[in-house]
Structures are given as structure tokens and as C-alpha cells.
Design a protein that fits this description.
Chemotaxis Receptor Methyltransferase Cher, domain 1, 7-stranded mixed β-sheet, 11 helices, about 15% strand
Length: about 290
Amino acid sequence: MTSHASHPEPATITDEDFLKFKEFFYRRTGISFESSKRYFVDKRLVERIEATGTGTFRGYFTLLRFQASGEELQQLTNVMTVNETYFLREEYQFRCLVDSMLPQIIHRRSSGAAIRIWCIPSSSGEEPYSVAMFLLENWAGIRDWDVEIISSDIDTSILRRARAGRYSARSVQYLPEPWLKRYFKSVGEEYQLCDDLRQAVEFTRVNLSEPADTVHYRNFDVIFCRNLLIYFDDASRKTASETFYEALNPGGYLCLGHSESMSRISSLFEVRKFPEAIVYRKSMEAK
């Protein structure tokens, strides 16, 4: 006689469950999932229900809402956020930084004050490290000015990867060969970023939808926020734009992704059309 061990059925996510979760996650992170993302969301919810042993959506949702440490919400946020990037993505904006934005910034800056750049989201670090490399390779002012680069993300696991600075061949495919030799060493099939560059960027965890997370982010000259606002709805985009406005110095610049436009989100910023890129500026007269 053969015995058949019973396996529990995987948890199911109903339409009502999806809407409940969607509203809760939006309130906590500002990220809004459309129905077209339903399969992606359901799959990850079921994975976390199994990993936590809660068994059902109801049990899992209770854990998410009431766990004092917030650890499971952070775990779920890590798997729900998409981190797709590579070095020198949208390189024209780095050229704009060197050729147009920085000359205007230092023109009105007393020497001695550091130039501060904020990259959010950091993803696995390709963007802030690209900024650092591009400045070292293309900006003569790097010898005379201190530059602080801070890079933030809501995903703690991706921040660990960013700090580690180890990348696939795909991530580095658009880097010039001399840069690859200068700043990386091969480790098997991967590329390890040198310690000097890793130490040039400070990585921090920030939830843009949480005012307590962003209140101390001030006095930046340039903010790169590329391909994040496409995951937000109008209200979250507006909140993010106000956060960036407060974080910038008067005359500071905000760079968005090529498919994003601040003009459709907020009237706080002036549109600046430089030869290399369109960027958004906080007025010089702003407080």
C-alpha cells in the first residue's frame, strides 16, 4: 500500500486581496501597482506567504500591518521593487552635469563648500558610481572641489549589493575599456569595483513617501531621480517633487529619466534646456 504525503495548496490571492494589498503598499511606499502587474504581485505575495509560514493572504496581511519591527514589510518591498540598470545609462545627463550644470554651480559657489549630489534610487549602485567615474574622467574641477555623492534606495538588499560593488558583464558592457581596467578587476565572470570608488559613495535607505526619512536630506546641488517616478501615481509624484525641491539648494538641478517630465507633475521647478539635456532647476530666488 502506497502512502501519498499531502502537500498544502499554494495560497491564492483574490481580487479583493489584491486591491487591499495594492492600497496598503501604496500608502506605505508611494508605489502603485496597476492590474497589468497582477501576476508579478501575486507571485511575490505567494512566495512571502510561504516563506513566513502564514499560510493565507489574510494571515500574511495581518503580519505585514502589525509586525512591530516592520521586517517583513521591508523584505516584501525588496522583492517588489524592480532594479534594472547598468553603468553609463543615459550618459548624456552625465555630460550635461560636467559641461553645463557644474560650471553654473561653481560660478556662484565660494570655494571650500562641497558639491553635493544625491542619486535616488541607487539600485545596485551603477548610477552613483557612474557619476563618480564620469567626474574623475571628464571634469577638471574634481582636483579643486570636494564632491559628496549620496545614493539612496528603499530596498535594503539592493543597498548591500551596491556597497559590495560586484557586477556582471552585462552591467559594465557600455563602459570604455580603459575605465574597466582602471576601476575594476575581474573576479571569475564578474567585475569588482575598486575600493576608492566604493568609498566615494555613501549609501542610505530612504523611503520617499516617508517624510521622516527625507527631512534631513538638504543642501544638494544636483539630484538624479531617473526612472523611479514612472512607478508612482500623480499624488506620489507630486510629494516626491516637493521633497526634491526642499532638498535642493537654490539654483540646484533635478535630472529625471528620458520618459519623465517634471512639467506634468509640478510647477515648482524651472525647465532648463541645455545642449546635452533638459533638466529642472530650483529658482535662485527660492528659500
